[in-house]
Design brief:
Structural class of chain A: mainly beta
Order of helices and strands of chain B: HEEEHHEEEHEHHEEEEEEHHHEEEEHHEH
Number of helices of chain A: 0
Shape of chain B: globular
Largest sheet of chain B: 8 strands, mixed
CATH class of chain B: Alpha Beta
Strand order of the largest sheet of chain A: 1-32-31-30
CATH topology of chain B: Rossmann fold
Number of strands of chain B: 18
Distance between the termini of chain B: 44 Å
Oligomer: heterodimer
Number of domains of chain A: 1
Shape of chain A: globular
Strand order of the largest sheet of chain B: 8-7-4-11-14-17-3-18
């Protein structure tokens, strides 16, 4: 059971589904409103769950516990790691490994089957080595890519954990990198004196600056780099949520024209990675509590007010245009193509991680109440 | 024992303070400890917050007896300027105590019979009354409505509205012999610390005790002073109480000189304990509904991130309450120095226990309300600085 396309993933092996981070699931879904499972975790969950093709679920949490569950919710294994985890892990479905990065700067390769440590390595740093950004398994080069507060993106050989490639990640990176089908990796970084830089790294390691946003009044050190770039390969677009001062500029960069073709200013910063709907509408969860649907040219398509003061996790969507969003008040919203929404589930504590679909379309909502709530897909996949 | 009586007898040394606080029997040192209550509360909705706090106070014991007929001073953790935000999210959702929590607390104190409730902190604004608090979302009119007109706001950045300062001795002070402060912190019967649940780069975690860092006034301790006190000063206390590159301009010598220049992680924890010993806190309330993690403020830049634990924490002993707060955040409140969350210095909770101020070992603290396991909401670890030379 492989992905339907690079654009719409069916097996969500990493944050946002696949290396393009589109948050778009490949099959139509319709949810029951009562969870079929509640997976008990070791602590609050701030990272999205990831899956292998059989539907096994892998969850890393803030207590430093990594767990594997069977599709039916049965616990397969549990592994303690050195440090808490907020970066979404990544699954290598071919070699059945799950990679986990921790706040203490450790990177682990675990067996999907029993959680055994295949290898582990510590990111060197004279200060704080934490890994706060979602991991990326780049399919063309095969590199496992992580950034650390040591200031670098590092490409590791997944079989050994040896570093093969490194480049500047800027100040306190919290955003994962993304990649397209050619193996080009997209990322952004904040650099004091320069501002916010959106850039790419080719498979041979050549870096290219795509867009530069001058340093805001508050300086680059206060610009939170937390949302990964989103790649819409169907339309040859890459979207960057570039924070500066109190707001965010959504930058649309055309891979075909090799330039920034439009941008739009949002009133508050963005920390959740946006999604791209099948019709190309970009879905951005903003720290004013509103989900914005933004069309071609930056045209506003809809605004959905979640009722929360802010949104910490990006949305996900399915092929018919239905959008799902979890908020810090513990509510899960379903939002129609036209932007009309409703709360379909409420948990006792905040949602801070992006939602995720398993290969059968069941929706996994990682909650800070030490749970993953699994809402069943009723379409009979 | 009233606060005035305690302060009058302060030279007698550290003592257990307040009713409802028991003394733990230990072979090494006798330390007070009190029940700490944890309550779930996910929204800043006045009635909901008030209801949760009321339940928590009933679990703590006699909060009514503590404040009935008394003048209560609430030191609010407002810290630094209100003219900032975290990526557009206002300070009361990130850095400072939300006004709804303060108002709900004030309303309950009045219901319990408090004669007057003074909310105070030193704020970097010229205004000394309610105007200084407006930027933090605090509206005196709304507080008066909720508190039968018994609320008062005081910006304690200098000696006003009093004509002189008060000296408060530190019985066993390590870095401070005494503090020279606004009389608001002395002319009171009960001191409440209303804090925010956050990490702190120098102290590890911030809570009820760290909140007292706002007590020494800018007019004597501020960074914007040159060579003499200035009633117009509004600066922070970096040079005097973090870096320790100079003494404050108090009217007499107040610091021991045993600080380490440039080592925040050594100085800040010790000043916290010197403050907590001089200004005994009778009740701590911690706003952990919506906050930030990794560090303490917008000034820490992009390392901080917004998070929502959805919790309130309250207790009668400040050390025990802060220890429970640290534990809720996923940290060991008795961790060795220079290990998480005290990554950059000394464990001030352990220092406070050694000074007899309270219990920080989590297995010796009684917890009411939500269980610690259910309430645990692990924060991102405190940012680890490069260690000072030689460490």
């Amino acid at each position: 059971m492989n992905s339907v396309s690079a654009q719409t993933q069916r097996v969500w092996t990493m944050a946002g589904g696949g290396p393009g981070r589109t948050g778009a699931f490949g099959l139509r879904v319709r949810f029951g409103l009562k969870p079929i499972h509640r997976l008990a975790t070791g602590g609050a969950v701030q990272a999205a769950p990831v899956f292998d093709p059989t539907g096994r679920v892998f969850v890393a949490d803030m207590s430093g516990t990594v767990q594997g569950f069977e599709r039916n919710g049965k616990l397969l294994w549990r592994r303690e790691v050195e440090g808490s985890v907020s970066a979404t892990p990544v699954v290598d479905p071919v070699f059945r490994r799950v990679f986990v990065g921790t706040h203490r700067g450790w990177l682990y390769c675990l067996s999907c089957l029993d959680g055994a440590i295949v290898w582990s390595t510590e990111i060197p740093s004279r200060t704080d080595p934490r890994i706060a950004s979602d991991l990326l398994l780049e399919r063309k080069t095969g590199l496992l890519i992580a950034s650390s507060w040591g200031g670098q993106f590092i490409g590791f050989q997944p079989e050994s954990g040896k570093a093969k490639l490194a480049w500047n990640a800027g100040i306190s990176p919290q955003a994962g990198a993304s990649s397209d089908s050619s193996g080009t990796v997209y990322f952004q970084r904040a650099v004091a004196g320069e501002g916010l830089i959106c850039a790419s790294v080719a498979p041979d390691g050549t870096e290219r600056v795509l867009h530069k946003q001058p340093e805001g009044r508050r300086g680059a050190a206060r610009a939170v780099v937390a949302a990964a770039p989103v790649i819409d390969e169907k339309r040859s677009m890459v979207y960057f949520a570039v924070n500066a001062d109190a707001g965010c500029r959504l930058v649309a960069w055309s891979m075909g024209e090799q330039r920034n073709v439009w941008d739009v200013q949002l009133g508050r910063m963005v920390v959740g990675t946006p999604a791209v709907r099948s019709d190309g509408v970009v879905l951005v969860a903003v720290m004013d509590g509103v989900l914005y649907g933004i069309g071609n040219g930056g045209r506003p398509v809809f605004q959905y007010n979640s009722g929360a003061e802010y949104l910490l996790a990006g949305p996900v969507c399915e092929p018919q245009g239905e959008v799902y969003l979890a908020d810090p008040l513990g509510r899960l919203h379903a939002i129609s193509k036209s932007g009309k929404g409703r709360v379909i589930f409420e948990a006792p504590r905040s949602f801070q991680a992006r939602l995720a679909f398993d290969p059968f379309g069941n929706l996994h909502a990682a909650c800070t109440d030490h749970s993953i709530y699994v809402l069943p897909n009723l379409t009979g996949v | 024992m009233t606060r005035r009586e305690f302060l009058a007898g302060i030279a007698a040394g550290a003592a257990a303070v307040g009713s409802g606080v028991s003394i733990a029997s230990e072979s090494d040192v006798r330390v007070p400890r009190g029940t700490v209550s944890i309550g779930f509360c996910n929204r800043y909705e006045y009635r909901g917050v008030r209801s949760v706090l009321a339940r928590m106070f009933s679990e703590l014991g006699d909060v009514g007896g503590l404040v009935r007929g008394k003048h209560v001073t609430v030191k609010v953790n407002l810290v630094n300027t209100s003219q900032e935000d975290v990526g557009g999210v206002p300070v009361w959702l990130t850095v400072t105590v939300h006004p709804v929590v303060a108002m709900a607390l004030g309303s309950l104190l009045v219901e319990f019979g408090a004669r007057r409730v003074t909310f105070c902190d030193q704020l970097p604004f010229r205004e000394l009354g309610e105007e200084a608090f407006a930027g933090y979302g605090y509206r005196l009119g709304e507080f008066q409505s909720a508190m039968d007109g018994r609320a008062r706001f005081v910006n304690t950045r200098n000696r006003m509205p009093y004509g002189e300062y008060s000296w408060v001795k530190v019985p066993n002070g390590e870095l401070a012999f005494a503090w020279e402060v606004n009389k608001t912190y002395v002319e009171t019967d009960v001191l409440v610390s209303l804090a925010k649940l956050k990490n702190h780069v120098s102290a590890g975690v911030t809570g009820g005790m760290k909140n007292l860092f706002g007590v020494p006034p800018s007019s004597l301790y501020g960074d914007d002073l040159t060579d003499h006190p200035d009633e117009g000063a509004i600066g922070y206390r970096n040079a005097t109480m973090h870096n320790c590159t100079r003494q404050p301009f108090t009217s007499g010598r107040s610091f021991t000189g045993r600080s380490v220049e440039g080592d925040h992680g050594y100085n800040v924890p010790r000043f916290i304990v010197d403050l907590a010993e001089a200004f005994p806190i009778s009740l701590v309330v911690i706003d952990g509904i919506s906050t930030i993690q990794t560090a303490e403020g917008w000034w820490n830049g992009s390392m901080v991130s917004v998070t929502r634990p959805g919790l309130l924490i309250a207790g009668r002993n400040a050390v025990s309450t802060d220890a429970v707060a640290a534990s809720v955040m996923g940290f060991n409140p008795d961790a060795p120095d220079r290990t998480p969350p005290f990554s950059n210095g000394s464990n001030y909770l352990a220092l406070a226990r050694q000074r007899g101020l309270g219990e920080n070992r989590i297995d010796r603290i009684e917890i009411a309300g939500a269980s610690l396991d259910a309430a645990r909401f692990e924060f991102h670890p405190t940012y680890r600085r490069k260690a000072p030379a030689g460490q």
